[in-house]
Amino acid sequence: MRILVLGGTRFIGLHVVEAALAAGHEVDVFSRGTSPIPPGVRHVAGDRDGDLSMLDGAWDVVVDVSGYLPRQVRASAERLSGRARRYLFISTASVYDGTQATPPLVEQAPLRTLDDPTTETITGETYGGLKVLCERAAEEAFSGEVLSIRPTFVVGPYDYTDRFTWWLRRVRRGGRMVAPIEPALPVAFVDARDLGRFTVALAESDAVGAVNASGPEAPTTWGAVLGLAREVTGSDASFEWLPEDVLREHEAIPAGLPMVAPVRWRDVELFSLERAHALGLHHTDVATTIRDTLAWHDAHGEATAGMDESTEAALLRAWDER
């Protein structure tokens, strides 16, 4: 197949490209060229916020990994309608309205809405709703088959966000550390390599509609993940589980402790994977994800997320003095 990836030079897109090449497909990458172009692909230089006339070829499948605003997705879907048979959109599990759904969340669960559907300001409050509108824009503008892939937090090598990686580095450093709320708090994430391979499998299929892309294979918790990270890294980390109100008082969530969802959203971390597994989603074991993520970070990554040592120490002192 000939696959066009909108994005494809960083993290998720790069894993999609590598998986597609490994499967023997021809890959074109549309990007501004500000990040290195993966070897083995044809680069189509352009900006999806600008002129799309250079997208004048013919493809079997489009994989859109860089659509965050409805107008962007509508423009690319309109341009590629008739030039490709299928349009795969990387959406997000944040599209679900957790206040109206019963876990595990299936693909037909209620979706978020926006008070202002014209907004282009991406925040934690608008991100999911904007992705809902992006999904609809693709469905309305593209004449072929459309499939929205809804991943949870994506982790693993190439993760420039440093969110999951910060936790691994912090556990590896050892000592007493702040942990989020309670050990039983659910957390969901998918290895980017699994997501890349799954996306290519979906491109090879005739699936339409929407599909969740979560992990690990069995639901897990912060206690289990941090404990496994301690085991994998051989650290002496001890976990101080601080209540949510204390973390909020000290502004430790959401920025200081990445990926931590409020307790009231705990059920939103539970997603049905029945359709995903039927369509070919496979899961790397979490210990391997931890090892490989740290190895990549040590060789290539930058520390950009999470609280620093002095902030964490001050928070622990405040907790001890309560």
Q: What is the strand and helix layout of this fold?
A:
Blueprint: E1 2-6, H1 11-22, E2 26-31, E3 42-45, E4 59-64, H2 70-80, E5 84-90, H3 127-141, E6 145-151, E7 153-155, H4 163-173, E8 176-180, E9 186-187, E10 189-191, H5 192-203, E11 209-213, E12 220-221, H6 222-233, E13 238-242, H7 244-249, H8 274-278, H9 286-300, H10 309-320
Parallel strand pairs: 1-2, 1-4, 2-3, 4-5, 5-6, 6-11, 7-10, 8-13
Antiparallel strand pairs: 9-12
Explain the overall architecture.
By secondary structure, this protein is α/β, with parallel strands linked by helices. It has two domains: 2-157 and 189-213, Rossmann fold (3-Layer(aba) Sandwich); 163-187 and 217-266 and 285-320, UDP-galactose 4-epimerase, domain 1 (Alpha-Beta Complex), CATH 3.90.25. Helix content is 34%, strand content 19%. α3 (127-141) links the parallel β5 and β6. The N and C termini lie far apart (62 Å).
Strand order of the largest sheet: 3-2-1-4-5-6-11
Q: Choose one word for the global shape.
A: globular
Helix content: 25-40%
CATH hierarchy, class of the largest domain: Alpha Beta
Mean pLDDT: 95
- The fourth-level CATH homologous superfamily of the largest domain is NAD(P)-binding Rossmann-like Domain
> Which CATH architecture of the largest domain would you pick?
3-Layer(aba) Sandwich
Low-confidence stretches: none
- Work out the number of β strands: 13
Summed up, the helix count is 10
Order of helices and strands: EHEEEHEHEEHEEEHEEHEHHHH
Distance between the termini: 62 Å
Question: How large is the share of residues in beta strands?
Answer: 15-25%
Biggest sheet details: 7 strands, parallel
How many whole angstroms does the radius of gyration measure?
20 Å
Structural class call reads alpha/beta
Q: What fold name stands as the CATH topology of the largest domain?
A: Rossmann fold
Domain count: the total is: 2
